[in-house]
Amino acid sequence: MKAKRSARTKKDSISDNFSVMESAIALSIQEEYLKFEKTIDFDNVDFRSVLMERKKLFLETTSIESKKRILILLAHFGTPESYTTIEKYLKISGQVLRDWGLLALKECRMFLESSLLNEDGVIISAGLGGKDTKLRHCFIISSKNDSPFTKLQKEIIEDKYGIASHKFNAEVEKVIFGENYSIIKILVPIDVAVGKFIEAGIKECNELNDFLFFHYYVTNVNEPSNEEILGYLEEIKPKKKESKPTTNNAKY
Q1: How many domains does the chain have?
Q2: Dmax of the chain from CA atoms?
Q3: Cβ contact 125:89 at 8 Å
């Protein structure tokens, strides 16, 4: 999300004043937040009255829709006072408007920093969130011929992706193994193509022990469910039978 409410996704198309949304927030909520913003005529908002209304955030009698509007208005006000108000609300909000409040807090900080730096700020966000200037992704890799991973092969995967993370300035947060597949959660800089990182790891693993299928599933929207994992593995079974050692069929 960007000041003046336009979306940006690539580092080379934005200013240096950008930040990544750390929290994992469903894209449906992010889309709802942006749509709600478009219904507000910010040029005709009296922000003094917004500060008067902020007490309504802490009243149980205030409707959810009214609280959503107040949070967005406070975010666009972009002052230390409005930032502190949103912070206080998040401490008592519970789960109902937690994600909405986090989006408002991040946007408020962006507007506050933009006014200090005298340039537009940018928020880069994905369903899985991120950290600093990195976005979080989950990807699935699997063995050739669906054979179970050995203990050595699991160690190779962890070792080689650890090495790849240093090369690409990425971070491996978690590695989970199934019988013949692995799910890896990573943080990758926004100016690095996540596919390059994944493919580099597969190639490194296969140099020692040619056991990984050169095909993967990657997402930054949500952690794959068991149903999604099994569906993907079932989908690529025919490809494994047809593939040659050098086949590169990455799936995004």
Answers
A1: 2
A2: 67
A3: no
CA angle 121, 17, 90 (to 5 degrees): 60
Helices (H), 40-150: 47-53, 64-77, 80-92, 98-117
Q: How far apart are CA 153 and CA 88, in angstroms?
A: 49
Residue 84 lies in a domain: yes
List the CATH number of the domain containing 136: 3.30.70.1290
Per-residue pLDDT of the chain (252 residues; tens, 9 = 90+): 222 223 333 334 444 555 666 777 888 888 898 898 888 888 888 878 888 888 898 888 999 999 999 999 998 888 888 889 998 999 888 788 998 988 888 888 888 776 655 555 566 666 788 888 888 999 999 999 899 999 999 999 999 999 999 999 999 999 999 999 999 999 999 888 999 999 999 999 999 788 999 999 999 888 899 999 999 999 998 888 776 544 344 444
Give the Cα separation of 45 and 19 in Å (integer). 26
Taken in order 239, 245, 249, 252, is the CA torsion positive or negative?
A: positive
